[in-house]
Write a structure and sequence with these properties.
48% of the residues lie in helices and 22% in strands. The protein has 4 helices and 5 strands, in the order βββββαααα. β1 and β2 form a beta hairpin.
Length: 128
């Protein structure tokens, strides 16, 4: 699960509820181990869109578009090895803001392709 730290705007991965007490629910940051009360973070779940794209994007598991999306997420999350980071920098430059802009463009394209396939199967006579 992902969460936004309200005070800093940082996005973190959190473990499901680790404890519920009278002051609220406590979540733990997967990377740092630090804990946060539910009032300090905002939980969000993007799995619905991700699941939709995985299910309906044509050739999802062999798509260069999907591979680039995964790589950019990796880079933005500081989870890349040096070789992957070098490929990203060669293709997209060294500015993380540029990576994020490109990621949005690529994810929009992936979502659109998934929607087009979904609707072409739902309404086959319309041929979009």
């Amino acid at each position: 699960m992902k969460a936004l730290i309200i005070e800093t705007g940082e996005v973190i991965s959190v473990v499901d509820v680790i404890k519920t007490i009278s002051n609220g629910t406590i979540y733990r940051d997967v990377a740092s181990g630090k804990t946060y009360y539910d009032r300090e973070i905002q939980i969000f779940d993007d799995s619905g869109i991700t699941d939709f794209i995985e299910k309906w994007h044509p050739d999802y598991y062999h798509s260069d578009l999907i591979a680039w999306i995964d790589d950019l997420h990796c880079a933005l999350g500081n989870e890349c090895d040096d070789e992957k980071l070098a490929r990203i920098e060669e293709s997209w430059g060294t500015d993380p803001k540029g990576w994020l802009k490109e990621l949005i463009t690529l994810e929009t394209a992936a979502y659109r392709r998934a929607l087009e396939r979904y609707y072409s199967l739902m309404y086959p006579k319309l041929n979009i």
